[in-house]
Amino acid sequence: MSDELLVEVDGGVAVITINRPQARNAINGAVARAMVAALDELEERKDVSAYVLTGAGGNFSAGMDLKGFLSGDFPAVEGRGFGGIVEAPPKKPIVAAVEGYALAGGFELVLSCDIVIASEEAKFGLPEPKRGLMAGAGGVMRLPRRIPYHVAMEIALTGDFYPAARLRELGLVNQVTPAGGALAAAKEFAAKIAANAPLSLLATKRIMVESADWPLDEMFARQAEIMNPVFGSKDAMEGAAAFAEKRAPRWTGE
């Protein structure tokens, strides 16, 4: 694991921290490769059910490391995309904890997450057009699916920065915290998720992500293919037994 990406596991939650505070956590090739390595391991771990993605030193990420880009250090991994995550987000739920800047590729990392917790001082934006680039790591594709079309166009075409409060109004940010409080709130949110049955979490996220373009006459059949193994799992029996016995369930992921 690279020192530029830190991973800490506690209570079913893995906190993944982009650790380049001297560069406002700009993403380089080392971070992207470390992200792939970390997620490949964490996706297989039964003691991890949810993730928190954050940045060190008061910023989430200012996006692509432009100095690295100029030197040929492209911050992407084939098949996984920018930052090692935007083209293939993890199967397990992931919560973004945003302080400071989440700009360009940093905002696109946020859009790869399932839940967004942001400090009241956080700022989001896609300033690529100001630099002769475009938000090609999912920004111009994901943003209009998350917020109204005309507002998404405004953000993408102006390149301006937008506060967390505005994105909360638009439904993109789940919760706004006082300055410095995003990580603690995100960990609490992720722990609430991780307390649930692992197979249920995986199936729920998969169906919500994949069903957007399912034909109406196939929706329930496709859902059943993913859902039925959950209902036939040991954890489904455990959940029912725990409810009947008025105790906390003991999940095994089976």
TrEMBL record:
Name the PROSITE patterns on file: ENOYL_COA_HYDRATASE (PS00166)
| Record keywords | Lipid metabolism, Lyase
Biological process (GO) annotations held by this record are: fatty acid beta-oxidation
Tell me the GO molecular function terms: lyase activity
> Lipid metabolism among the record's keywords?
yes
Pfam families named in the record: ECH_1
Q: Which family does it belong to?
A: Belongs to the enoyl-CoA hydratase/isomerase family.
Name the chain's protein: Enoyl CoA dehydratase/isomerase
